[in-house]
Amino acid sequence: MNSVNKTLYIPLYGKSYVSKKGLFFDDRKAEEIWEAEGFSLKGKSKSKWLAYYMGIRSAVFDEWLKQQMTELQEAVVIHIGCGMDSRVIRVGTENHRWYDVDFSEVIEERKRYYAETTNYQMIAGDARDCKWLTNIKENKTAIVVMEGVSMYLTIEEMQSLTDSLCAHFERLALLVDCYTSFAAKMSKHRNPINDVGVTEVYGIDDPKLYQSEKLAYVKEHTMIPPKYIDELKGFERFIFAKLYAGGFSKKLYRLFEYKKR
Description:
Elements (H helix, E strand, L loop, with lengths): L2 H4 L2 H12 L7 H10 L10 H24 L4 E5 L6 H5 L6 E5 L1 H7 L9 E5 L16 E6 L8 H14 L2 E9 L1 H6 L28 E7 L4 H4 L4 H11 L1 H5 L2 E8 L1
Parallel strand pairs: 1-2, 1-4, 2-3, 4-5
Antiparallel strand pairs: 5-7, 6-7
């Protein structure tokens, strides 16, 4: 795998770690894959604080997705940059068609652990080249999640992606997490993704930069809700709240919702 694809092991480790500790959600599939793959992480990539952050971030995405699936019964679900994530298992398809999308070598690896079903399909594709959308026949409504992906795309690449999604679907709901420009600058030297060889990332400070004639910014979501911090105990809760929550966190990470106009 190239260096960007290898970043999938960082959130995989985080989800496996918190699942084993009984925090935030149950993710037996992450535990299974992490144990089987035996991928070696080092430095900040294996920090328990980062694992807690990855777990909470995923739980927030899961919650939003469940709500959208309840409200948009006819929608297909698209998880762009799925990596080895088991969101389809944690959330469940609930009779929605679900598509997991990632690079071909990631999907090849993924198929060792996940089986396609009537409602679930894996698609090999690059977020920067939306030819993969031709594999999705539905064109009415889509719920799209992009977790840990936007920072590898330029603003122009993100706009091209959302333009393609808006052209394909009549209705669209999108949740995407982003680095700030400050975090992107820091990430050249002080980010766990450096441990797997990634040094080039991108950030935005204004969520309206991803807007277009067809895509509208809806609102910002809280990346680290207090209820999840409260699952931690004592000293760990105090330290995590200082490191990953509040004003400092917003200087680094943001979570934005969009919809088709």
